[in-house]
């Protein structure tokens, strides 16, 4: 086993995950999904992420996504599959990823040696990912790897993001955080989405959020102002440490030098994407 510097995998996983996430804030996703008959924005995003699992319903997606309201999911699933099959959705998703990366990064970056290198490093890391108890990773791992370097990179970021995410859900369960508590405590770190974005994309009501905050206060994890207490900070740090442990294999496989190189390349692409307006200015809860 390669000895990585502390949190090297986490430092690599962050820009990798954010590159993947550019798709879900992209107008190109709306365009491609409208072409296949999916006009509702929420339905398009739910279908785009869940399509590797097949024509699933709200129960399966609630289990795999963890922090979405089941009633909200049921408004869109399984009805979305009547408009477009999972295969059509996956094709539209890849076209949208292509358009998004071209728009945000530019043709020169897509054709660069750095793009090809990043794709191969990320795919090499994903070789060590495992399918057991990781449904979203496993579904994506069964998909073919695209030919174009920038799409190979996007596919690999999807694998790495879902592998880490599946492990993170196990950590949340172990910590005893329900879906809204997980969201509210993450937002309290200052690194999660602002509440209005959480409520709008996950389908929870303000009353659900406020009740979760009260439960977290009752456990001594949030203070009267909604800030993390010392115990709350320790819990969130322990969650990330456990996620790191469960997600160590890809970065151990890639090695310290490869992990650092992938982190640097992904961060460079991410900076360019953010500068091109990849994410809304008010997305993150700043503290």
From TrEMBL:
An example of a Pfam family matching this protein is HTH_67
Designated name of the protein: SalK
Origin organism is: Streptomyces roseoviridis
InterPro entries for the chain: HTH_67 (IPR054058)
